[in-house]
Amino acid sequence: MKRRLLIIASILLAASNTVCSQFPASAGVKAGISVANQSYKFTPIDYTMATEPVWGPAVSIFMEAFRGKHFSFQADLSFARKGSSTSVESITVNHLDNDRVSVTEGETTTSAFNYLSLSPMARYRPGQGSVRGYFLLGPRMDILLKYNSDSDYPLEDQNAIILGLTLGAGLEYSLQKMALFTELQYQGDFYPVCGVDPLLVNNHMISLTLGIRYFVSD
Predict the structure, then answer these.
(1) Count of other CB atoms within 10 angstroms of residue 205
(2) N or C: which end of the chain has fewer CB within 10 A?
(3) How many CB atoms lie within 10 A of CB 115?
């Protein structure tokens, strides 16, 4: 799997370098807030542990190229904080009692992952005019920067690189050489944060940002 991840990561980097090597149509920055959560799934018994979301900043710089009437390509470089909180202290499975699950709760603990994310995406603008919506879709590569946990049982063997998918929608107000916009994104992952059967941990995140775009070329 590690070899496959490295191959796909190389493709993502090559795609982003292609976009950035072209004379950019626009570039800018966006910032806001994110809400992230994790799914702790125990596969043999089909049980998902209860978790609560964590909040954090969402900051990105981006470049747009190959801009046509409706389609273009955009590469985002972002910082994201993902993770979850839970009050579950231990889980016991009684296999003699039809896999009955007993949950012991304790103090709330938080696991936080800081990522540097690279997202080469297709950008579609269905309308024309000074105010118009747009949609984003593309693969994403998360590079782990730091992991923090105040749990007595921190997660081990975190994946340094996680591949996923980014979906976004926004509303943009264009001026002469710049535009202001607000954007909503959802990020899901193809691979778990860590773990193998019977425990798999996956990230999910939604972000809401405000941004400014500078048009370099028409």
Answers:
(1) 27
(2) C
(3) 23
Number of structural domains (the chain) is 1
pLDDT at position 14 over 50: yes
36 and 205 Cβ atoms separated by less than 8 Å: yes
**Structure tokens, 113:** 């992952």
Q: What's the pLDDT at 20? A: 46
Q: Which domain holds residue 198?
A: 2-215
* pLDDT bucket at 32, cuts 50 / 70 / 90: very high
Judge residue 67's burial from the number of C-beta atoms within 10 Å of its C-beta, 0-12 exposed, 13-18 middle, 19 or more buried.
Answer: buried
Query: Residues 103-146: pLDDT tens digits?
Result: 555 566 788 889 999 999 999 998 778 899 999 999 999 999 99
d(CA 133, CA 174): 11
**What are the phi and psi torsion angles at 147 (to 5°)?**
-125, 130
More confident residue, 121 or 8: 121
195: left (phi over 0), alpha (psi -120 to 50) or beta: left
Helix or strand (DSSP H, E) at 22: none
Question: Residue 131's domain is classified under what CATH number?
Answer: 2.40.160.20
Q: Which residues sit opposite 84 in a β-bridge?
A: 111
